[in-house]
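Dear all,

This email documents one entry for the complex benchmark we are building for the journal club exercise. For each entry we list the sequence lines for every component of the assembly. Then comes the predicted three-dimensional structure of the complex as a token string, followed by one or two observations. Please use this as the template for your own entries, and keep the labels exactly as they appear.
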Amino acid sequence: MGWYILKRLIAGILSMIVLITVAFFMMHAMPGDPFSVDDNKKVDPAVLDRLRDKYGLTKPIGEQYLDYWGLLLRGDLGISLKPEKQDQTVNSIIAETFPLSAQIGAYAVILSLIVGIPLGILSALRRGKATDLSIMAFATIGISVPTFVIAILLMWLFSSRLGMQISHWEYDFQHYILPVVCLSLGPIAYIARQTRSSMLEALEQDYIRTARAKGVQEWKVIVKHALKNALTPVITYLGPLVAGLLTGSFIIENTFSVPGIGKYFVESVTGRDYSMIMGIVVFFGAFVVVCNLLSDILLAIIDPRVKLDR
Amino acid sequence: MQYADTDLRSMRYEDLPASVFGPAEKRDDTEQIARPSLTYWHDVWRRFRKNKLAMIGLGFILIMTIACILVPMLSVYSYDGMDYTSMNAAPSWKHLCGADFMGRDLFIRIMYGARISLTIGLVAAAINMVIGVTVGGVSGYCGGYTDIVIMRIVDILSSLPSLLYILLIMLLLGKSLTSVIIALCFTSWTGTARVVRNEVLRLKQSEYVLAARLAGARTPHLLLRHLVPNAMGPIIVSTAFMIPNAIFSEAFLAFLGIGIELPKASWGTLANGGIKDMASYPHLVIFPIIAICLTMFSFNFIGDGLRDALDPRLKH
């Protein structure tokens, strides 16, 4: 186990190095730089050149790359290059915006698990009946309908029909509920489908018949014998899900005016905010690597058939 | 005494006259198997045809494809033709889905959007399949260091949210159909590659591959004639699900405003454009959304149908 974790960590670090390198050079290959976007047209070119000088953008690209690694190894993601951010460090921007995204994401993960798994079980137990068909119909809708469509519909329903104020963010239940529901609909549908199909598979196994023959109570058969074995695909899905949801969704945060990290994601790329882009790449990358590793370890703990040393 | 065939059939066994018991006449067709044997693909098609939802989906996509080719050719409207007398017009016989804030006919814009979305979906899925099959096949077949290196690259590419790469590539290449397709294909082939690799790893242990190798077959022959055709089921399924994914990602990009150059409009652009005036002119959002959702439903149904038809063991 320890050996496996070490191996995965080394692989993760190698992935990060490649990722950072590719992202760095791809970013600098993009036409324009942070100071050449439209709203800077009125500014004196000499001033812009001095700004570029100040942030080290006039140095040769190789040197900038090495400088970046120097910063990164000291845990510093640099300074945001956008004037309106007033030299805020990327670390502090992430520290400011990430907790909210993570909070909404965490609620969404919990909601999708506590709704998705029971729906899947119910559907498997009532296979072919009306309950099953309606749950699966809902799941198909949840998988097929894009998030932004759900966001639009929810917003239309709650803001123009029910008169809810969602044009600015506040830290109360009313403002959390919509983004959380919106984020979790897709995962709920996916988890319900996965749980259903693996439950059906598990319920056909011999050990279930044995358990029933021994007179084990039905709920115990379902929860302890079938469900425990049926959760494997759900746990595999959990890693990418947590990573995806906690890092914030641009669409959701934009639609419901959530001041989370997802909003900076696209803003910084379109605005060529180099250090912000790299900061997000590094942060997301590390987050995803760790999440995937954790879900693999969790899987090995729950399901002893899974061997980690492949 | 002669009996008609039908009389004999209706008689009870005991009443049958002795004369009918005798050696049967030799006929040519007695040696034949009753029904022509079905190949694997006949069988798949037979199972797929039984799936109503999948057939409805297929029908919808075919109608959509024909409509998005023919309607813009035959219609009096064009996607950028403005008409200031019908700004924000509600749906009517003149404008089937209404018109937008510049008086452009929404129905025709949705049809042009269908061209963009379907093209992106199909082309991206095809490219994905080619890259995925090649990389996965080589990785699984060669094994060893080749496999390790390729799988590490796949891991790296799939370890980050693909939106990040897509954004960088879109800004690098500019807004166009080609760059959207390139951006979408950049990371999404990794899923197919994994599937193909696992299949090839499994199949290359089988006896027929050994037999072919002993008979002197070389690697390309083995891969193309034996391994890939036998892995076709999972490949088709993952490609089928790639189409709605690509359409969804494009709609998503367009929604962010980094999709295809205006005034051409994909469904995502249309939905995004309508969202500002949603309260007063809901039709501007509703129709593009309906188009996206129906198409996504159809492709997902087709994908589910294909999965059940190609591998009945997986069906639940």
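Observations: Residues 54-314 of chain B form a domain with the MetI-like fold fold (CATH 1.10.3720.10). Chain B has a mean pLDDT of 80.
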